[in-house]
Amino acid sequence: MDVSGLVAIVSGGASGLGAATARRLAAEGAKVGILDFDAERGAAVAAEIGGHAVKTDVGDEASVAAAVAEIKDRLGAPRVAVSCAGVGLAARVVGREGKLSTDVFERTIRVNLMGTYNVMSHAAREMMALEPLESGERGVVINTASIAWQDGQVGQAAYAASKGAIAAMCLPVAREMAKMGVRVMAIAPGLFNTPMMEGLPEETTQGIVANIPFPHRLGMPEEYGQLVSQIIANPYLNGTTIRLDAAVRLPQR
């Protein structure tokens, strides 16, 4: 699929992987709608790329429904939906003095998993109502998992569960939507230079980088955006999760 002239929705498009993806798709000629809880930063990225931003709580279905409707009204119905919005909260199942982390688990699942499901659902419904392109495609959905899906560390039970579910639903949803010409893929990023990582002390960052085989560095958000572009362009990619991780495997801690 050639995105030039098409509408793409990117959740979490105000920063990190989402912002890089929004910029990449806009550079390729797409009209980009940004869904992000950070209205100010979302608007700034949208102004930069000539898109449109809507303040959205992805974990709230009504908020996502209203945001997708607004993007459709301003830019048109989406052919592409990329979910990058998420949180990386860490907590042990049973912490010090027996403190439980059910609140962390609930919030992580709501934002990461339900947020992805909400964006995918509302965007795919719009795609299915469109006429197919010459390739037979109506649209492409790309969700963001994580390598924690397979090698989650201590304290990542909630995060790994949310990302594992995103990876697990990729194939069944792709099979479901195949008859309508909508492809569904997932990307599992490794250790990337995002705002979350930038806030760590240099010593901590160097310790993390030491575990990355090659390239021996953090991933760049632009490389995530590049893979999104490649998935969109290749019509035979469907129903699988791609690790984008420089061959890293996370240690226990």
UniProtKB/TrEMBL annotation:
Pfam family, one: adh_short
Keywords recorded for this protein, A-Z: Oxidoreductase
Organism: Tropicibacter oceani
Cited Gene3D superfamilies: NAD(P)-binding Rossmann-like Domain
Protein name: SDR family NAD(P)-dependent oxidoreductase
Family: Belongs to the short-chain dehydrogenases/reductases (SDR) family.
